[in-house]
Amino acid sequence: MSDDRWTEGAEVSSESVDPVAGAPGDDAETLRERQRLAQVDMMDRWVGGVLTEQRRTRRWKLFFRLMMFAVVLVVLFATLYGLFWNSPSSTAPTQRHLGIVAVNGVIASDSPANAERIIQGLNRAWEAESAAAVVLHINSPGGSPVQSQRIYAEIMRLREQGDKPIIAVIEDIGASGAYYIAAAADDIVASPVSLVGSIGVIYAGFGFEEAISRLGVERRVLTAGENKAFLDPFQPLDDDAETFWQGVLSQTHRQFIDDVRAGRGDRLSDSPDIFSGLIWSGEQSLELGLVDQLGSLEQVAREQVGDTEWIDYTPSLDPFERLTRRFAQVTAEVLGVHAPNTPLRF
């Protein structure tokens, strides 16, 4: 054993031996062996790290694939639900019920409360033989004059046929363009604390002409027609332009008033404040003749069909379209480029 070159010399702890440089007294063969072992160990560690990273990458890929699959399933399910389960049945119901048409949110061509959708729901409910009454279930602050007038005209057309009553039930708010729609109904029902009225027209904008001059920015606007840019917020609104625009607002307001009078008739009181743009509670509205009775959807159902039975005839929204529309609206608002389709609002 004394001739064993591996055991000769002083004992050296493993912690003090450099795996590459070796220990003092190592010959060339021992040094090469240590270097080989160190390289093998380094290679093992590298391979282990690569395998660990690959496993981690595969797990993330699997996670995102599962997430994408889940999103596709949700969208598919929501679409099928909207098409087959959450829409009026193709088989006409035989039990007497209220035919509900919802008017929720701002009335605008690019919102769920648009004229085309609501008119389609009105006609569905009107044509349902077992629907004892058509009910406009309103919870809206108003919106586009054009969209409101289209719905108003369709309600008046159906009302003149006289086959079944059309009732407007106002929830939290039925103001401005929403009241415009309600005024076409045979009767209007509201809660004592509903907000009703706001019969007026509004245009709102800003004037930045002084701000832009202070910033040293030159505004360049080219038009064909001297008044084409009269509402440009970076130019002052002169007296003639203001007078003209006020005339447009007044004429639109007059149309609003005439249609409300045509719908409500002599039920309206003679108070000059009715058409001033003020908004009242349901209880105050009853005194002014803006509504016919205080109550709720359940009370209307019991009066018309003897039970709280109703079917929603409002056309279902495409879930994907709703998602993309909402995303576009939020993005436009964040970027500050959101603008209504018309500067006038009921």
Automatic annotation (TrEMBL):
Q: Which Pfam families match?
A: Peptidase_S49 (PF01343)
Q: Where is this region: Disordered?
A: 1-28
Which parts of the sequence belong to the Peptidase S49 domain? 161-303
Q: Where does the source fall among the domains of life? A: Bacteria
Q: Which UniProt keywords apply?
A: Hydrolase, Membrane, Protease, Serine protease, Transmembrane, Transmembrane helix
Bilayer-crossing regions? 62-85
UniProt entry tagged with the keyword Transferase = no
Q: Which Gene3D superfamilies match?
A: 2-enoyl-CoA Hydratase, Chain A, domain 1, 6.20.330.10
InterPro entries assigned? ClpP/crotonase-like_dom_sf, Pept_S49_SppA, Peptidase_S49, S49_SppA_C
Q: Which family does it belong to?
A: Belongs to the peptidase S49 family.
What is the protein name stated in its UniProt record?
A: Signal peptide peptidase SppA
Q: What is the lineage of its organism?
A: Bacteria, Pseudomonadati, Pseudomonadota, Gammaproteobacteria, Oceanospirillales
